[in-house]
From TrEMBL:
This is UTP--glucose-1-phosphate uridylyltransferase. It comes from Streptomyces hainanensis. It holds the Pfam family NTP_transferase. It comes from the Bacteria. GO terms for biological process: UDP-alpha-D-glucose metabolic process. Its EC number is 2.7.7.9. Residues 10-271 form the Nucleotidyl transferase domain. It catalyses: alpha-D-glucose 1-phosphate + UTP + H(+) = UDP-alpha-D-glucose + diphosphate. It is an enzyme of class 2 (transferase). GO terms for molecular function: UTP:glucose-1-phosphate uridylyltransferase activity.
Amino acid sequence: MTSPRPRLSKAVIPVAGLGTRFLPATKATPKEMLPVVDQPAIQYVVEEATAAGLTDVLMITGRNKRPVEDHFDRNYELEDALRRKGDEERLSRVQASTELATLHYVRQGDPKGLGHAVACAAPHVGDQPFAVLLGDDLIDPRDPLLTTMIEVQAERGGSVIALMEVDPEQIHLYGCAAVAPVTDGVMRVTGLVEKPSTEDAPSNYAVIGRYVFDPGVFEVLSRTPPGRGGEIQLTDALQTMTTEGAPGGPVHGVVFKGRRYDTGDRADYLRSIVRLACERPDLGPEFRTWLRSYVAEEMPAVD
């Protein structure tokens, strides 16, 4: 009798990047702490993990990331001040981030790429499957992508990545998957290419920042040489895992068609704030009214 696969409980969130696209804002502030409306981007990611049942969260950090740790820690002075003022609403929101999950931190040390960052999680993860969430992609909680990926991994084993159809002219911005359909919305991944040209791309399915890995990925990463940019690329490890009988495989892809907010690009970051603010019940009605007025009055019509 085959023993049941262990239930996923661990999430890994790499937060060691320098955030150079947002300089000078990220000179002293981690990009993960940039606000998206009124909470930092990283909190949305942790909330997504816990909503999918992943209550053990490991963050792979680097230099100058202490504010991320502080955000998820208790702030007794602030809480006491809010309590004495009787501001229960803000007190509850401040405390919410400290109660989301059991959080752990490990330093990446040398910035050797995303693959190396994920490999740093091996001692914590052990021999269990686990999820990796990248902080540049925020997934709307109404579209439970991660829950679906966990279900696919439990059913099919191996590893699962999130895919999204993009305009072929944009595929050079992403890792790209060669795929074969399995069922509606689930693909068998047969190969991956990091940021190919439009002419060389095997499809228009882009890899976005959600993964569910079999622990065999650590064995593959341990023997993955530096690739693009002299870094250990996660895409290169996944390419190895697509081959028959490789550790951590097979690799399947879940095609995501829901709402995604890209905070890794300045223009998309601004669009994300506007979209999320418009949908907030406490901010949306007034903000949408102002936005319509601003567009009508301030933006000249274009023929």
